[in-house]
Amino acid sequence: MKFYALFIVWLLFFAGISSCYSQQYPVISSYMQQPLLISPGAATGYGSETYVQAMHRSQWAGYDNFNETNNRPASQLQLITAALQLKDSAGGLGLVASADKTASLRTIDVRINYAYHIYFSKKGSFGLGIGAGMRSKQMDFNDFIVKHPDDVQLSEGRVTEIQPNLSIGFWINHEQYYLGGSYANFLDQDFEEVNVHDKPVTMITGGYHIVLASDWTLTPGFLWLNEASENVFAFHTMGNYRKLVEVGLSYRHEEALSFITGAWLLNDQSLRLGLAADLITQNSSVKSSASFEVMLGYRFR
């Protein structure tokens, strides 16, 4: 009973703060494979396993950025996540490190997460987590096309600023479903030197595992992200064959339809290779359709 009361309080908390606040938080197509990016409460590994994974995302490769000598993806993201279940403890540690380059702005984020887990049944646990770290933002004013040199908002060269970063979140992991959420960047940092203001971010995600046959499992799910006045809605369905191969689709509202696939390699299925590709569904005339993700992960048995 205490578990359900605590869970309801957390949901009401997230719902209440989301309405209080230019998107800065990275949104990826394979979000269902990156629980630590969504919530520090997921700092336990998959099924209490220790794992590490790395991902690269290029968005709108070949995007026309109005610089004839330097056409490049609209944004590039490198992400490393890792989780460790603490021995003889209900706690887990997690690491999230990302480098996001969008136009002239580079953001580097490093967070250490800790989550405490309450087992409400033999098949499920409820985790409460907190993440703490540092966020660096660098603006390259050399990329700017300056129309008004006397603009007080403009600086010269590359300017870097570092601020602390905190997040809180929950994660429910059950044999039949998962549900997680977080309130990230709640320090509401103002990077004055680079003229960027990071707003708090609210995220909720979930999925339900449907066993179709002895070999196949189907998992439909969703993601909702709110940052300032912007909302991102995504839905996905993933099919898993004997925990060896998975294929699926993800749709991000007014943005893209994504094709996602992955495979577990080696004799003990400890190595995972994942791929995702986006088909742009909104404003495709001004966006390149070549958005993709590559992910490599390893589970320590």
Structural topology:
Layout: H1 2-18, H2 35-38, E1 50-59, E2 75-85, E3 91-102, E4 105-121, E5 124-140, E6 158-174, E7 177-184, E8 190-191, E9 196-197, E10 201-208, E11 210-211, E12 216-227, E13 230-241, E14 245-252, E15 256-265, E16 271-280, E17 291-300
Antiparallel strand pairs: 1-2, 1-17, 2-3, 3-4, 4-5, 5-6, 6-7, 7-10, 8-9, 10-12, 11-12, 12-13, 13-14, 14-15, 15-16, 16-17
Name its key features.
Porin, 7% helix, globular, 301 residues, 14-stranded antiparallel β-barrel, 17 strands, single chain, 56% strand
- Figure out the total of helices: 2
Described by its quaternary structure, the protein is single chain
Q: Which runs of at least 5 residues are low in confidence (pLDDT < 50)?
A: 1-22
CATH class: Mainly Beta
Gross geometry: globular
Portion in helices: under 10%
What CATH calls the topology is Porin
How many distinct beta strands?
A: 17
Structure description:
The chain has a 14-stranded antiparallel barrel. The chain has a two-stranded antiparallel ribbon with strand order 8-9. It is mainly β and 301 residues long. β2 and β3 (91-102) form a beta hairpin. The chain has a single domain (2-300), classed as monomeric porin ompg (Porin, Beta Barrel). It is built from two helices and 17 strands.
